[in-house]
């Protein structure tokens, strides 16, 4: 049987974000009209042979800075930027002035609003999506020692949550075109100890829910959805989170909406929701808000060991404003993805994101796949983009390569390896202008032909 890593090997990934805009006026609420005709970056003249080829990424970066000058962050295009403004400031001020800043009425309102948006029966807010995933696994019935299948190429938080629940992550391969879990690989990974599949909707692209519903029904497995990046995405016309299964969203600043940090579990079962609410609040069967309304005359009891996974009303107030903006954010992201598609049309060295039948992505990320010889230069290309003041990120390495799992000696998976070595995340966020996208495309073209 596979094992979780020893506690001494656990590590938390770092993240960084560019500062948010200071006010609503500084963050354009909508992209301007697209130009009818734009010169394709492919028409640009290619540069001569790159003088930095063959150097390490750090040496390439130093050489690029020497050649182009240090990046100017006043003219920098970040990978992502949250859309925050005066409305969020006002909402936070109201909470501070109310005197109730911990989990309370704003959290309850945020839960109800998000459940209504996605079409879920119940929602439980948490301090992070990892916490929501942990609770989802527990209330679904994952027990210590159970194996849980998940994609090899995903955020470390997915595997962390499985380990927190006492389960054992089993990594299956991904489709190298959609980057989502391959149902055939997942089926081959099922063993006598398998209890569940934790299905990740990668980078805002819905996975093949029908295939996994059929697989889990045939094998007698639980199906749980990690939709950290997929708020607002649809599968066959229905929002992810509306199917009644435990499904989790993230509100990290790189996600579609943000509360700074935070997560949400949606479920179809009232019993599961009630248990999740108790577990997030140290196991208490009565919330602080209910005790407050009872003027302190109610006394909570604890039926099982719980956790402190509570979201604050300060964060929920931000989330309510963000949720009201979500339809506009989704529209902008769809337009930006379509414009990138147009800019990259006809490029032989690059494949735009592939959308599976029945899927409507929310475009929380825009991840391209470099083809042929370009894939071998992926890190060098990223360095050159950074040198031109454009942030990007390389694809996620398979989790079985990470030090906390490498000791298990899992065999390499071809789809995960291909995605890891050939993918590149490009900037996409509300407020990214068509001129910014043309600049990204032109810089990428120069890097590809250097």
* Structural class category: alpha/beta
How are strands sequenced across the largest beta sheet?
Answer: 1-9-8-5-4-2-3
Assembly status: single chain
CATH class division of the largest domain: Alpha Beta
Outline of this structure?
Helix content is 38%, strand content 12%. It is of the alpha/beta class and 450 residues long.
Task: Explain this structure.
α4 (129-140) crosses α5, α10 (313-344) packs across α15 (434-448) and α12 (378-387) crosses α15. The protein has two domains: 26-81 and 326-448, Alpha-Beta Complex (Aspartate Aminotransferase, domain 1), CATH 3.90.1150; 86-322, 3-Layer(aba) Sandwich (Aspartate Aminotransferase, domain 2), CATH 3.40.640.10. It has a seven-stranded mixed beta sheet, with helices on both faces. Strands 10-12-14-13 form a four-stranded antiparallel beta sheet. The chain contains 15 helices and 14 strands. Helix content is 38%, strand content 12%. With 450 residues, the chain is of the alpha/beta class.
